[in-house]
Amino acid sequence: MTYRALLIGNSTFEADAGLNPLNAPTKDVARLHRALVDSETGLFNDENVRLVTERKHDEILDELDEFFASGSREDLMFLYYSGHGILDDHSHLYLCGRDTRSDRLPRTGISDETINDFIRGADSMRTILVLDCCSSGMFKGGAIDTQLGGPGRYVVSSARGRTLANDSQSPTGTSLFTEHLVEGLLGGAVDSNGDGLIDLHEIYDYVKKRLAQTSKQIPHSRFDGDGDVSLARIKQASPALAIAAEPIKSRHALEAPFGLSESAITLRDVDHDEKLRPEVVEILRFTDDDIDIAADTLDDWLQVEVKGDRLLVTLSPGEGNNRGKILVRDRVSGSVQILRVDAFVRPAPATPVERPVAPSQPTTPAPQNAAANAPVAPVAPEERAPAPPAETYRVPPPPPPPAGQPSSPQWGQTGPQYSNQSAYNPAYNPTYVPPPQQPQVYRVPPVPGSRPGTNGMAVASLVLSLFWLYGIGSVLAIVFARKAKRQIAQTGQSGGGMATAGTIIGWLGIAGLILVILIAIAAQNSGTGT
After folding, report:
1. Is residue 94 a part of any domain in this protein?
2. What is the 8-class DSSP label of residue 422?
3. Fewer CB within 10 Å: N-end or C-end of the chain?
4. 3-state helix, strand, coil in the chain (%, to 5)
5. 49 in any annotated domain
6. What values do phi and psi take at 304, rounded to 5?
7. 279 domain-assigned
8. Contact predicate 34/172, CB 8 Å
9. In this structure, are 136 and 218 located in the same domain?
10. What is the CA radius of gyration of the chain?
11. Domain CATH for 287
12. Does pLDDT of 384 surpass 80?
């Protein structure tokens, strides 16, 4: 089982002048963070606890979405909020972000119904919800003991019903409710069953008792889980310290003297050429003791500088996922805290590669018979075989000419001689290059007897015209006939006669419909007159 926690603290509300700034929330989440991951008593690992402060409402919704989506069925989900809580006219509670407006709560606040939706959609079967804000007892439009029932849910509010919760009134600058909650986690709560663990019931009993001693504020709770949920271990080295409620100063001396307003810096979507501004993380003092803060990192893409009570973190991430850590240490007490930094940078779009284009060359189409037109290597004159001697062709004697015409050469006389050497057959020249031949173009002859088929629209037009259907078939027949004639003109299909017949019969059908309507009207008028 993994313990996961999301701690949200908002102290400034710049969008609504009616929401006064608070002093405690940033210190509340910082001190609770250190208590949950305490090396002696904590059950939470530091990498599973996310601390966020001064967020807008949409950023808080993103954090809630990521948080509840990260848990598995066996995980324990711990959600804490410190800040302003406002009720609407229907008694629904809204948690406030930095941009929340009291006159625009559904659009700018985080409603109790939204949080319930996140809890219902999570895989985890156990969720602890701790609210340190005004009217936190009215979660989900009514008292939490009647409105927020459900298996595996544990709800703790800092005040009952519509009552107000106290702001910073403790020596550490936290609210009284959160101060006593931290005390209980660090050993103030009593391990009543002796199992070595402090469960939520025991912590709540301690907080309720301490608030009754220091203020009039009354917390409230509703536990619907199957059993006790452990949140801390008892301190084995000094069990008496865990039982005694005093002195509290001794417990404070064992705590870290400072905290950070953020446990992690996360940038989920950064452009490849985006210039990031330095991130600011506040250093929060928990005691009056002197502190000397130093910060360092081994990651080349991170630079950190201590400026008074702030850390300035400069980020220069590369493409893809970037993860780093910043070590924050107090030189006086030796206390160390880790600030995790994650950034995802989108890769730059691919640039098309321009290839050099060769100068265009005139091309001739390849001949159909490449073998017949392949160039022949020239042959030296001495290597060529001598041409055979010319043969004399003797023409047979023609028949005797008709009377009155000159006679042709007599039989046996030598006629004109023909040889393979003539003016049209020049002598072989080894440098002779035959003229280029034109490419032969082969055309496929049409298949005898083939012709396009009958147009389907024309057939449909004729068929619909024969089915009158109170004029509906006639209208469709005319429409199909018009489409059929356009298609026939483009494709050469047959069916023009069918389209014409469909048009004529269709118009006749429409005329018949009009005639029937007129007759019906006349008959009705005549019956009324009678």
Report:
1. yes
2. B
3. C
4. 30, 20, 50
5. yes
6. -130, 145
7. yes
8. no
9. yes
10. 49
11. 2.60.40.1080
12. no
Q: Which residues have C-beta within 8 Å of that of residue 303, sequence separation ≥ 6?
A: 297, 313, 314, 316
Beta-sheet strands, E only, within 207-272: 220-223, 230-233, 258-260, 264-270
Of the three residues 228, 255, 282, the one that is the final residue of a domain is 255
N-to-C CA span, the chain: 94
**Co-location of 48 and 26 in the same domain:** yes
Residue-level pLDDT at 99: 95
46, 170: one domain: yes
- In degrees rounded to 5, what are phi and psi of residue 508? -65, -40
pLDDT tens digit sequence for 317-365: 999 999 999 999 999 888 888 899 999 999 988 777 666 666 666 555 5
Q: For residues 88 and 211, state if they share a domain.
A: yes
Q: Which residues pair with 341 in a beta bridge?
A: 265, 324
The last residue of one of the domains, among 292, 322, 345, is 345
Q: Among 490, 484, 493, which residue's Cα sits nearest to residue 462?
A: 484
Whether 339 and 464 share a structural domain = no
Cα–Cα distance between 479 and 464 in angstroms, integer? 10
Joined tokens for residue 233? 């271990």
Helix (H, G, I), strand (E, B) or coil at 246: coil
Strand partners for 280: 312
3-state secondary structure of 505: helix
User: Strand 320-330 to strand 85-87: parallel, antiparallel, or no bridges (unpaired)?
Assistant: unpaired
* Residue 275, amino acid: K
As a residue count, the chain comes to 530
**Residues 160 and 66 placed together within one structural domain of the fold:** yes
- pLDDT of 109: 95
Between these two residues, 239 and 461, which has the higher pLDDT value?
Answer: 461
Q: Determine the Cα–Cα distance for residues 274 and 316; give it in Å rounded to an integer.
A: 10
Closest CA to 395 of 418, 420, 415: 415
> Is 145 in the same domain as 132?
yes
* Overall number of domains in the chain: 3
Q: How many CB atoms lie within 10 A of CB 266?
A: 15
372 forms beta bridges with: none
Q: Are 95 and 44 in contact (CB under 8 A)?
A: no
Q: Within a domain: residue 362?
A: no
The closest of 67, 39, 69 to 52, measured between CA atoms, is: 67
Domain holding 521, by residue range, is 456-529
Task: Tell me which residue of 270, 318, 326, 266 sits closest to 294, measured CA to CA.
Answer: 326
Q: How far is CA 84 from CA 99, 101, 123, 355, in A?
A: 12, 11, 29, 62
Residue 199 and residue 271 in one domain? no
